[in-house]
C-alpha cells in the first residue's frame, strides 16, 4: 500500500502536510493530491506539486481530467486515501454523502480505506454536529488520527490541532500493513461500564463512555490481531474488523471474557462495577412516602484478577486499567501487585480532568519495574501507543 491520494482541505494546519509529503516519500510512499479551494488559501499548488512531483488536482469540471473520469480514477488508483487536514466542512460533506467539488466527489466514489486527520477550532470539534458526523464516519469504517490538544492559531486552547506528520505516517503504516506486528495473535479487550440491576428500571453504573477501550480494540486489530471486544453499554460505534460481544453486568462480562480465552493479550479497559445488589427487585421500587429502601450490596467477581490467575489459560500479557481520583501512581502500583497482572494503565478521572466521556486521556504505564508517564493525547493516540508497546512485547 504505497500509493496515497492526499486530500488537503482548508485550515492553517495545511502547512504541516508539506512535511508529511516529504517524510512519506522518504519512506517510499507516492502521493497524488487533491487541493480544495480552502486548502489553496494556505498552501500553493506549486509547493505541493514540487514535493509530490505529481500534478495537483482541484477542479471537478476540468475538461481534460474529467474526460478521463478523474474523480473516479483518482480514488481507484490509490491504495489509501488520506484527508489532512480534514476540516469540519469536509467531514460534514463526507458524513452526509455530498459531492459538490472534486474532493467530496472523489471521497464519495472511493472504494479504498480512508484516513482522516481532523483539524479545527476546539468549539467546532466539540459541537454535537461534528461529533455526530464523526460517529457516522467511524461506523462506515473511516479511520481517524488525532486531533490533539494544544494552542491554536485563533489564540485559544483545546482539542482540535491536527496530528503531527509522524503520527499520521504511523497511522498510514498501520493501515498499509507495514506495522502488521500482531498478525496471528489473539487479543481480548473490555470496554465501557457495567450496569448492575436494582430492579427492572434502575441500575448502578458509572460514567465510562467506552471510548478508550474501543480505541484499543481498533488499534490492536489494525496491527493484525484477531480481536474480541467485550463491551458494556456504550454509544461508541463498533470498531471495524473486531468481534463484538455485548454485555450489561459484571457477571456477564466475566463469562464472556472466560469464553474468549485463550488469547495472547488481554486489556481490561472497562470500568467494571465493584458491587452489585444482593437481590434484584422483580418490580419497580416505589417511594410510597416512606424511608428509602435499604439495598444490600455484594462484591462482584474481580475479572482482572481472575484472568491474571487463570493458570494454563492465562494470556501471555495481561493489562489492567486503574481509574483514580487521587494518588495515581501509588494506587496503580498497589493494584498491579494485588491483581497479578503485568501492566496497569493508570489515569486520573473525575473533577475537571475530562477523561470520562472526553476525547483525550493522560495515562501512566505502570509495570513491576518502572512507571512511564505519557503526555496527554487523544484516546486514539493513547490506544495506538499502547498497541505498539504490546506488539513489541509479544514479538520478543
From TrEMBL:
Residues 182-392 form the DNA/pantothenate metabolism flavoprotein C-terminal domain. Residues 187-396 are annotated as: Phosphopantothenate--cysteine ligase. Keywords: Decarboxylase, Flavoprotein, FMN, Ligase, Lyase, Magnesium, Metal-binding, Multifunctional enzyme. Pathway: Cofactor biosynthesis; coenzyme A biosynthesis; CoA from (R)-pantothenate: step 3/5; Cofactor biosynthesis; coenzyme A biosynthesis; CoA from (R)-pantothenate: step 2/5. GO terms for cellular component: phosphopantothenoylcysteine decarboxylase complex. Its EC number is 4.1.1.36, 6.3.2.5. Residues 1-186 are annotated as: Phosphopantothenoylcysteine decarboxylase. It catalyses: N-[(R)-4-phosphopantothenoyl]-L-cysteine + H(+) = (R)-4'-phosphopantetheine + CO2; (R)-4'-phosphopantothenate + L-cysteine + CTP = N-[(R)-4-phosphopantothenoyl]-L-cysteine + CMP + diphosphate + H(+). The active site is at residue 154. It comes from the Bacteria. CTP binds at residues 274, 284, 321, 335, 339. Pfam families: DFP (PF04127), Flavoprotein (PF02441). Binds 1 FMN per subunit. The keyword Cell inner membrane does not apply. Residues 2-174 form the Flavoprotein domain. GO terms for biological process: coenzyme A biosynthetic process; pantothenate catabolic process. GO terms for molecular function: FMN binding; metal ion binding; phosphopantothenate--cysteine ligase activity; phosphopantothenoylcysteine decarboxylase activity. In the C-terminal section; belongs to the PPC synthetase family. Catalyzes two sequential steps in the biosynthesis of coenzyme A. In the first step cysteine is conjugated to 4'-phosphopantothenate to form 4-phosphopantothenoylcysteine. In the second step the latter compound is decarboxylated to form 4'-phosphopantotheine. Catalyzes two steps in the biosynthesis of coenzyme A. In the first step cysteine is conjugated to 4'-phosphopantothenate to form 4-phosphopantothenoylcysteine, in the latter compound is decarboxylated to form 4'-phosphopantotheine. This is Coenzyme A biosynthesis bifunctional protein CoaBC. It comes from Roseiterribacter gracilis. The gene is coaBC.
